[in-house]
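#lab-general

N.A. 3:47 PM
ok so I finally got the sequence cleaned up, no stray characters, all 110 residues accounted for. can someone with queue access submit it? mine expired

B.Y. 3:52 PM
send it over

N.A. 3:53 PM
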Amino acid sequence: MLESLEAAGIARGATTILIATGMHRPNLGDELARLVGRDIMERYRIENHFCQDPTSYRRIDVIDGAPIEVNRHYLDAELRILTGLIEPHFYAGFSGGARPSCRASRASRP
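B.Y. 4:20 PM
back already:
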């Protein structure tokens, strides 16, 4: 996908990959390299959504008293391409995306 964007004239430096972590912690270092690949990590700007940092999102509405807040990198982008999945989640309602660190921790449990 990134090669197609560049072939269409979108400069590599104009592309930001936003890791939509939801309420999970950011993916950093070797974990991020495993998630996106070291080559992509070194060639593209990557931002992690971090819900505990209120400067990383903006309120766009309030519904029934609940604030609706969206990541500012997403809101400020001229072009948005979303990949991944959304699936029912037993506790949260819905969930999405792969979390290699979660899979690894589950696999290491006895």
